[in-house]
């Protein structure tokens, strides 16, 4: 663990925080990625949902912006096979929908608001994730 | 302006995830695997993001409304129910299984592992739809009983 990694993690976290503050300032919304995505999975979308699509397009285009700003291609080593990806994706989607949030909505925005629901949700998903990694690796 | 603001928020969020290494599942496993060679970077990302968000939100909430909406849309529920706990527990199992959660998966579509990220995102969308339909089915069932 070197200081460079701690520096990158802290600065990256600060950018995530600035993004969350900016979305609250402009649209008054929580930056919960599962919630923003979930709102788009509907047959009755209106123009009030356009911001969700715009947010997701920004999220998708991050790697290009990162390269354009002079960053190296991000290291993304997804080693899970397709069966794991499908099961993991189903559980993540199902759980985030049932628990009303994921790492961003509960873990960042919710804890920042000192929401008791988010504090509990984050403690619970960190615990089950640690247990899952312990059992599966 | 709403859409442009949301676009920049998404882009900045993505840059933060990439810069901090959170798009790489190896860093997620490194954090969650507390018995191995522990990698605390996720803790620094969360800590820093929470501090900036916590201070920033309080400054923003001094306003009577956001810039481009009539009011703030912030969750108000404080109920710790079974749904929250079971849902979060299920989410954690999926996260621990593949080291991906919604934000980093979306920020990885246009990278070298884009196909895998897309498979995960499709399954995630399926999980969201499944949960929503299941809960409305259960609500209808209980409504018809009572």
Q: How do you describe this structure in short?
A:
The complex is a heterodimer of chains A (137) and B (146). Chain A has 137 residues and is mostly helical. Chain A has helices spanning 3-27, 33-38, 50-60, 62-68, 82-98, 103-112, 116-136.
What can you tell me about this protein's structure?
The complex is a heterodimer of chains A (137) and B (146). Chain A has 137 residues and is mainly alpha-helical. Chain A has helices spanning 3-27, 33-38, 50-60, 62-68, 82-98, 103-112, 116-136. In chain A, α6 (103-112) packs across α7. The model of chain A has no long low-confidence stretch (mean pLDDT 95). Chain B has 146 residues and is an all-alpha fold. Chain B has one domain (2-145). Helix content of chain B is 68%, strand content 0%. Chain B has helices spanning 2-19, 25-32, 41-60, 82-98, 102-106, 114-145. The model of chain B has no long low-confidence stretch (mean pLDDT 94). The interface between A and B is large, with 109 and 114 residues.
Instruction: Give me the secondary-structure category of chain B.
Output: mainly alpha
Tally of separate helices of chain A: 7
Elements of chain A, N to C (H/E): HHHHHHH
How would you state the average pLDDT of chain B, rounded? Answer: 94
Given as residue ranges, the uncertain stretches of chain A (5+ residues, pLDDT < 50) are none
């Amino acid at each position: 663990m070197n200081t460079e990694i701690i520096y990158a993690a802290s600065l990256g976290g600060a950018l995530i925080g600035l993004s969350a503050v900016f979305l609250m300032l402009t649209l008054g919304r929580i930056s919960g990625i599962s919630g923003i995505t979930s709102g788009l999975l509907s047959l009755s979308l209106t123009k009030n949902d356009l911001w969700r699509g715009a947010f997701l397009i920004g999220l998708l285009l991050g790697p290009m912006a990162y390269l354009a700003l002079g960053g190296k291609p991000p290291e993304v080593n997804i080693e899970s096979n397709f069966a794991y990806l499908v099961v993991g994706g189903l559980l993540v989607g199902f759980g985030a929908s049932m628990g009303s949030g994921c790492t961003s909505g509960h873990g960042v925005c919710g804890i920042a608001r000192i929401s008791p629901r988010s504090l509990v949700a984050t403690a619970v998903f960190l615990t089950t994730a640690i247990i899952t990694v312990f059992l599966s690796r | 302006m709403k859409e442009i603001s949301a676009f920049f928020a998404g882009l900045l969020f993505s840059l933060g995830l990439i810069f901090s290494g959170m798009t790489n599942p190896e860093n997620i496993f490194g954090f969650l695997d507390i018995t191995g060679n522990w990698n605390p970077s996720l803790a620094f990302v969360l800590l820093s993001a929470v501090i900036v968000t916590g201070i920033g939100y309080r400054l923003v909430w001094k306003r009577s409304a956001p810039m481009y909406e009539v009011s703030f849309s912030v969750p108000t529920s404080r109920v710790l129910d079974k749904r929250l706990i079971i849902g979060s527990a299920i989410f954690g199992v999926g996260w621990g299984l593949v080291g991906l959660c919604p934000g980093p998966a979306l920020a990885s579509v246009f990278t070298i592992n884009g196909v895998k990220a897309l498979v995960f995102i499709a399954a995630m969308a399926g999980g969201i739809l499944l949960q929503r339909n299941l809960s409305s089915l259960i609500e209808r069932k209980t409504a018809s009983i009572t």
